[in-house]
Amino acid sequence: MVCSKAFVVSPATIANFGPGFDSFGLCLTAPVDEISIARQPAGRVDVRAVGKHKVPLEPEKNTASFAAMRLAELCGSDSIGFSMKIKKGMKPGSGLGSSAASSAGGALAMAALLGVRNKETILEAAAMGEELASGSRHFDNVAAAIYGGFTVVSDLKTRTVIHIKPPRFQIIVAVPDISVETKKAREILPEKVAVRDAVCNVGWASGMLHAMMSRNPRKIGSYLEDKLALPYRKELIPGYSSVHEAALRAGAYGVSIGGSGPAVFAISQGNAQKIRKAMVNAFKESAGLKSVSFITVPGPGARVQRLA
Ligand code: HSE
After folding, report:
1. Beta carbons within 8 Å of 7's beta carbon, 6+ residues apart
2. Does the structural domain 5-164 have CATH classification 3.30.70.1290?
3. With contact defined as beta carbons under 8 Å apart, do 236 and 179 qualify?
4. Alpha-carbon dihedral of residues 18, 24, 29, 30, nearest 10 degrees?
5. What does pTM read for this prediction?
């Protein structure tokens, strides 16, 4: 069905999820970006933002409208005009897939206008938006935002995405008051890795998949390990080691960095408030950093909530 208006919510995601650099993603229930789109005369594109988080308003520089335009092109509707209103639910540069939420939401909103349901096309357009924001076309956040649950981009060339419904567990997130640019966090990674480090990651990533499929949150937490990115990136997050230890002491099953950071997340079943407070205090005491914190659960992915 072709429509004239749509309203979409698109969630935060945790990329890498421990050992799955550029491959694993976990979709969260909250926070979400809210995106409204309405048809306009051909060729006219307007972008508006509401709420406290600022985003670029030029259509070719805004992640959501950029992904929407790419989706229209992929579907042969290049000249479609539209107006878009964006309310960001998460701060850009926090490691919670902010750009992916906007890209996936923008692509899905345009797909809703055009009556397109093909997830591969939505994923492709969303990844173009992600590339605009971060300088690299990685699919892990956008795959999780579009498919929901736990996702594995198992083959980049063929864009194969494996989707697993995760068990229920709590995700406790603390975002310290610093910004980490994904581009910079990618540039500090080494070009080459030692075979022994790669072997560790292969083992942990395989263990993580088994733990997800056997729906065992305690084991999921135990595989939140990484030797490819975390050892380098934790240097960009003052207090990371103390926050990690504090969360485990308070009962977390495992702890890691959300995407390229600086968000740090822990998973648990129970003790969530205790873990949240321990993480916030550890950022304050070890690094003098204030942090925004919240507790959420795995979520279903970007959704069209209204069509007209
Ligand atoms: N996989 C990407 C990275 C996610 O870690 O650089 C960035 O949000």
Report:
1. 34, 35, 36, 37, 109, 304, 305, 306, 307
2. no
3. no
4. 60
5. 0.96
Ligand 1 lining (C-beta closer than 6 Å): 15-16, 21-22, 138, 140-141, 182, 185-186, 229, 259-260
Q: What are phi and psi of 160, to 5 degrees?
A: -75, 130
**Model pLDDT for residues 162-195, shown as the tens digit of each residue:** 999 999 999 999 999 999 998 899 999 999 999 9
Measured in Å, residue 211 CA sits from the centre of ligand 1 at 22
Distance 23 CA to ligand 1 centre (A): 9
Domain 170-296: which topology? Alpha-Beta Plaits (3.30.70)
**Which residue CA neighbors atom 4 of ligand 1 most closely?**
259
- Boundaries of every domain in the chain: 5-164, 170-296
- Tokens read off for 64: 């959501």
What is the whole-number distance in angstroms between the Cα of residue 15 and the centre of ligand 1?
6
Q: pLDDT tens digits, residue range 201-236? A: 999 999 999 999 999 999 999 999 999 999 999 999
